[in-house]
Amino acid sequence: MAEPAVSEMDIDAAGLAVRLRAVTxxxxxxVAALGPLDLDVAKGEFVSLLGPSGCGKxxxxxxIAGLSAPSAGTVNVSHRANRxxxxxxxxxxxxxxxxxxxxSVRENVRLPLKLSHAxxxxxxxxxxxxxxxxxxxxxxxxxxxxxxxxxxxRVSLARALVTDPDILLLDEPFAALDxxxxxxxxxxxxxxxxxxxxxxIFVTHSVFESVYLSQRVLVMxxxxxxxxxxxxxxxxxxxxxxxxxxxxxxxxxxxxxxxLAPSYSGQRSA
Amino acid sequence: xxxxxxxxxxxxxxxxxxxGLGFWELVVRVNDIQPYVLPSPFVVFQTLVxxxxxxxxxxxxxxxxxxxxxxAAAVGGVALALLFNQSKWLEYSLFPYAVILxxxxxxxxxxxxxxxxxxxTAVIVCAWIVGFFPVLSNTTLGLxxxxxxxxxxxxLYGASRLQTLRFLKLPAALPYILGGLRIAGGLSLIGAVVxxxxxxxxxxxxxxxxxxxxxxxxxxxxxxxxxxxxxxxxGIVIYGLLALVSHLVLRRWHESxxxxxx
Lengths: 270, 262
Fold this sequence. Notes:
A: Rossmann fold, 3-stranded antiparallel sheet
């Protein structure tokens, strides 16, 4: 990334992992997808971006990841000093598992390390560790087609974790899964977050998922996406299934839903 | 699917083949047709065995030509596709000529090639011309069919061009490349035969197609049939081998090579 080192030191000093200032994204075909958007995410924070489909939340994630450049504004991401041994600062999980069908689970998880030329012996132990973290240790030699949707998503998560990134970007990762699997992966993700102290930015269009998972829910408007409102979900940690059925949870969901409703009002179809 | 049906699927074509041969044999015998008009299957088989020294040598020549043309088509097609994939301008400049080579009937090009090139080279070039285009177009299609998110992932982790090519684009294109090769195998044989026939009329060559032309002039119809039979079998074997290779390479992961059970 080309931002001057000063501003990175700056956001490090402020305890921020990610800072967006007046960021807009206009696509080549003239569609204004995002912004202007200001966003601060503290280190170690779990933040959800919640909004209707096509509101630019995935675009925001891609900008933070450096997968595309903003049309205006600045994107700062806190970097750990050394990136040598394959410790990429960002892990990205897409809506689809996005696995290489020709490679085994182990080789899929190895990919980020291979691309950054990490030493092989070190890589093997890190792959085992990442697979153990998502509960897939014994499936290392399976091929993606042999796994269920939930397991594929876990592989995708393990691949994001294998570089031990500071920031995890998740783009509606569980949207295509059945409810039981999604709940289970929600809990596993929360457990990982508590254990590994990563900064997590989670994109979703599910009110329930965002409230359940995050410390902060940021509601976005319809396209071009801006921040409509923000909610701090303060509850007894660690959260578990009892939170999901509590009156407190229902109350938060109601609040967030009503904040989200205007974002949908202008849309042709819901 | 029951095993009875599976056996049936194999037996039916064989039964049709046997019935056809029997009918042919019958017609020839009942009407007492002379071998120089229409040889019976039995005579064709006799000729195949009797002329085996000549025919096998010709078969070897044709197969070698086909193999050389096929290898040239495979290497050339994949290499061109990789070049085109790296440079759009190169693709824009050269692709139309690849199409022109493909759509111009090779049988019309062969006599020209025979004028300018040594005969053996001309025959291989013919086999290459018909074979390389399916490899080129299939490989290009495959290289462009890479999953967008996977490409983004490679970009995120700072993959070099070579890494993207080696670990993403080539594996993703592999099923397409193998499909192209399967078509190219049969076409290389056709290219070789066409060139041999064109060359044969110029008075040289010893491949199977040349044998067919030569036997035609001599009214040695049984040998024509025998040579034709060998060509068909060669084509079937080439196709079968390439299909087998494709299956072995893809069986762990690609839909085309998986059973229907899931």
